[in-house]
Amino acid sequence: QVQLVESGGGSVQAGGSLRLSCAASGYDFSSGCMAWFRQAPGKGREGFAAIDKYGDTRYADPVKGRFTLSADSANNILYLQMNSLESEDTAMYYCAADTWCVRRLDPGSFAFWGQGTQVTVSS
After folding, report:
1. Is the pLDDT of residue 102 over 90?
2. C-alpha angle with apex 98: 6 to 70, nearest 5 degrees?
3. Among positive and negative, which fits the CA dihedral 98, 104, 109, 112?
4. Burial class (CB in 10 A: 0-12, 13-18, 19+), 87
5. pLDDT for 3-23, tens place per residue?
């Protein structure tokens, strides 16, 4: 059974940084893709960062140059370093995984989800 547990969210001022973690159990980092999504109140779930089993990353334009994915395969942890945070980054952040790797920023492509961690950026 795959379990994803996010941590590291919190409140920060604009321009600050946070690092989110996604601890995975029952999931093989050498297969498929993992990704981060976020959902702000009243909005849909947005995919913005993904990594495949080869370590190739993809970022959506709003976070390019500010957010960085990394994977600790030995400990089954996916990290998201978020710098230069903006108030528009305020959302619930979710980690997702799947054994396939297609449309990697599409929430419909992922079968496994964490419970989310809240990020609040104040201006």
Report:
1. no
2. 50
3. positive
4. exposed
5. 999 999 999 999 999 999 999
Single-letter residue type at 22? C
Q: How far apart are CA 93 and CA 24, in angstroms?
A: 15
Give SS3 for 89. Answer: helix
Question: Residues of 31-55 as b/e, b for ≥16 C-beta within 10 angstroms?
Answer: ebbbbbbbeeeeeebbbbbbbbbee
Q: Which residues, listed in sequence order, are joined to residue 25 by a DSSP beta bridge?
A: 3
Structure tokens at 27: 């999931």
pLDDT, tens digit, for every residue of 47-60? 999 999 999 999 99
**DSSP-derived secondary structure for 24-85:** EES--TTSSEEEEEEE-TTS--EEEEEEETT--EEE-GGGTTTEEEEEETTTTEEEEEE-S-
